[in-house]
Design brief:
about 700 residues; alpha+beta; eight-stranded mixed β-sheet; five-stranded antiparallel β-sheet
Amino acid sequence: MPSEEELFASVDALLNEEPHLPPPAERARLREAAGITQARLATALKTTTQSVKNWENGRSEPKSPRLDAYQRLLNGWAAKYPAPGAVPAAATVPAAPAAPTASEVETAEAPQPVDVPGAGPARPATRPAAASRRPAPQKAARPAADPRFPHGPLAVLDGDGSAYGTGGIVLDCPATSVVELVEWTLRESGLGAPRLHRNGKDSDPLIVLTAAAAVKLGLPERLEGHEQRRSLRLPEDHPVVKQVVKAKWRLTQRGFGPWARIYRKVQGRERQCVQLAILSWDALDERSWPGVSEMEPADIARVLGVYAQRVITPRGSTAVSGLELMTALRPPTRAVQDPQTGNWVPGHNPGSLGTEPMDPAPPEATAEHPVVVDSGWSGGFLNEEAYQWVRPVDLLTDEECVLPFAVGLDLNTAFLAAAARLVVGLSAPDHFRAPTFNPKIPGSWLVDLSHVEVDPRLPSPFTPDGTRPTGPAWYQTHTVAYAQELGHNVQPLEAYLRRETGAYLDPWHDRLKTAYVDTLADLGVTKDLDDRALLAAMEQHKEADPAMVAVLAAIKATVKGGIGKLRERPQGKKYQEGERWPALQRPTWRPDIRAAVISKARINMHRKLRNMATMTGLYPLAVLSDCVVYPSPGDSPLDFLPYAASGKPQPGGFRLGPTPGLAKLEGVQSMLWAVDLMEQGHNPARHIKGGDAVLDEGE
């Protein structure tokens, strides 16, 4: 018979180490509510010991109110926090019939779990994170609350069979081949994530392979070839690809590359698909996931887990994930009841882009698109791109040249801010001649804006390079509406407009904004900071936590890449002009929506530039997308930004803050440095931070 101290130690280990039991604060509350103090537990355990002795001697077991209360408490915990793999009693109660979701009635690639003959237990063994090579820090994403996915959305598999999940858990994976890994993931791992919309689909489990795990499963450690590794694929005659096909699994058209999706056709309601990401094949781009590939498996799981929790389970590059997030939050179909048969069938989901791809209007397309090549279109194209503008050096004043500093301001996720409450077209474009301009109708307008006068010390709001238009050109609705806002008459010659409209990107904006703000807050940059404290926090935030810094970079890349994917260009040397490339088969190939976002972002920038000139008399030296450089008497934005007498920022100009659309310090250089670059024809905004900034074109 163990001692009381040993029994207490066992109880504490059970309560404090098992991941499926309530968190410490909840356990303390339950203990207090039940009146179970350490002394009362001791009494209960002594009574238990005496009861066992009485039973062994044939005497009846005495009653123990304390023991009964403790047992009821444990039973309550067991019901509320079932062990992994256990089915709560409440789960056996039949639910009231309800309309199925669209994903439950669709017959597309919606996989179902595999029934593996002779498989082991329903869930693999887990062990605490202390067994990892380096434990993940405390700020880890918690495992999914959905009982179907007790171990979270993903795991990082190392060469020793350890699969590091979110929340610090480690699973034992016995797989020695890719086929076994897929079947283990679907049958035993407990990985996955619930749908983000009631009409959507659950996220497929993601397994990230380290180099050692890839080699163990029969994959090459590196992909070699003339192209970038992200573009390479295993050949169809590779042994691993043959094993996958022989086991009646399928690969998507992307093949077996850095992001491989392995699936079977739907046979029921549950999806039957696993996503693989291979680290040594450059699955995690250094620009989008800085430093993540070099982290330990537990830390990689933490980074990807936080991203999955706040954004979406990664399904490819951050650009692919950004596009997938749009569809996940605006599913193309929903379940509708057929009035004739009474069956539930997939129907169009209002506000979505539907299931079929849609050709753009000729001026919205690219030069190689079939609607342009086949029709012989020569009427010009939309040129709604981000700013690349430098003020002519001869327009600099002596007062500006003697200022000591050039200070760069960067707008936080400018494209994301532009996507807020943005009305876009949802139906096919219709052609109109000499229409009356309506700023509420999204579309493309052929209009002459060359007569609009703009201060030469500011870029033109109508062209990416800031030069004045020379004649009629195609513009998105926001650009034409801004000309009206400036007090000019606009008379469109033609237009391609859409009758059905909606704020398609609203849920996408809301989720990414929350993810961005929450991640910045984890790094110490919060909304309650004043401007001086904000600048100090932003200067230090990248030193706080490399994992969260990587998550922040991935969120920003998701915004840019997702917008860019709306107009994905053809790739590969074999492509010929006029052919349809794979991206055109997506309903989300919508260059008009991309143009609307970038047009609004550029107009927002120009409006701030104009207001700054009115309030302060300051004019920018250069603009590169969402970065603007101003001459300044000091080395801080506080030296030239407009503030009211109360100390609050003046509305309409640039304001410092941690939310999308507000500004942060990009960099500081000498005014002499900036003028020298301008004289050489270079853009100071590209280099103000140090190095060479990448133009934010949404590509």
